[in-house]
Amino acid sequence: MVALCIVCSLSNVSAQEKPKKQLNIIVFGAHPDDCDNKIGGTAALFAKMGHRVKFVSVTNGDAGHYAKGGGNLAKIRRKEAQEAGKRLGIEYTVLDNHDGELFPTIEVRHQVIREIRKWDADIVLTHRPVDYHPDHRYTGVLVQDAAYLVIVPNVTPDTPPLKKNPVFLYLQDHFQKPNEFKADIAVDITSVFDTKMDGLDAHSSQFYEWLPWTEGKLAEVPKEEKEKREFLIKEWSRPISDNVRASLTKWYGHKKAKEAMHAEAFEICEYGKQPTDEEIRVLFPMLNN
Fold this sequence. Notes:
Rossmann fold, globular, single chain, 10 helices, alpha/beta, eight-stranded mixed sheet
């Protein structure tokens, strides 16, 4: 399958010095916009610090709308992903697999392995394989299945293997069974919350049309751009849960954790490299600020 790559740059990054060690972060979402709403703020922080971030949508999103669909919708969503990437300062790739039809096949596993290897990833993030949407679940399975194979030379031999296994992490969700999400790492994104909203705003077919429609709120979406933005901020200004607040306290200390208004959290996958707290601070340098 063909992947569409979108290289984007944040205007103020070029003026900054590159970090001593540039980190490579890759995030796999099932659909264009999944990565943005789970890790858009943390991605913006990484990008502003001079690190390389890539979002990968494993499907092209061609089913995610109530009035549009097929190739036309896929084109719309690719354009939205391109714009979101520009706003966040990251690279965005949309794989050409059908929305709502994803399955953890060998072919798609190879696609995932290639993306991780080509990015020379230090950190890989994805959905937990516990979710209401089969595309989300299977994206999690696909990335889990790649967690060891990315270093095996005879698997997907057309792409050179990694020399080290990355740290694999799960994106936050609210599902409880069989196990609830554990906030091993929490990042204060208060300073870049507006940037995250910029990224979500780029996915207009989703955050102003499809998702409000699925929630019975389509009539509540304003027509004017300023009011739309206010609607978006209201929808995504969600309270920080107790377990995420506790994780913020661990990484930032009590005072900074208490002051945080917005956060994103991640759970360490048992596959891949198992980082120490010291290694986590290297991989997430914003925790040291």
